[in-house]
Amino acid sequence: MRRICYRFPQRVDLSFAMGMPFNETLRYIADMDGQETTKTTADTQKKELVRVKTRVEIALDRATFGEITPDVLRPGVITEAVDLKCSVLALALRGGGKVPIANDVFYLRLTDQVSRTDIDIAKEGSAEGLDALDMKNILLGTDK
To answer: In whole angstroms, what is the distance from residue 65 CA to residue 7 CA?
Structure first.
C-alpha cells in the first residue's frame, strides 16, 4: 500500500538513490526519529557547540503526518512509495541555555525500485538554514 500525502511539494530540491531495498531504507530513516547529535560548527570566526535533534513522521492519510509505529514498519505493510516529514532542530549550546538557530522541515518521498530506493527531498519554505544536500548528508551519515 502506498502512503503518500497531497501536501508533498510538486517541485523537489534533490533526488538520489539509496543503495538499500525499500523496507531497509524506511526502517533506517525511521530509526533517526528522536536522534540527537552534538557537533561543533565549522565557522573559523566563532566556533559553537550545536545539538541537532531529528524528528521523523510518516503520512497517515493523504493530508496528515504522524508518529511511526512498529506495525507500520513490518514488511509488506507499505509497498511502492511512502512520504515522510523530517524536522531538524539545531540548538546552540551557549552559556547557561540552548538557543534555537535553525528549525528546518523536509518532505521525503521514498520510492521502491527493487534493489534500491529512490529518494526525493523537498524543503518546506525558503528560510535559511539546512538545504536538501545537507538533508541527504544526514541520511547518508556523512553529516560534517
So the answer is: 10
* Cα–Cα distance list, 7 to 38, 73, 89, 134 (Å): 31, 22, 21, 22
What pTM does this model have?
Answer: 0.86
Torsion of CA 6, 7, 12, 18, to 10 degrees: -70
Residues 6 or more apart whose CB falls under 8 angstroms from that of 71 comprise 77
**Tens-binned pLDDT, residue by residue, of the chain (144 aa):** 688 888 888 899 999 999 999 999 999 999 999 999 888 877 667 788 888 899 999 998 888 999 999 888 888 888 889 999 999 998 888 887 888 888 899 999 999 998 999 999 999 887 777 889 989 988 888 654
Residues 25, 27, 107, 87: what is their CA dihedral angle, to the nearest 10 degrees?
A: -130
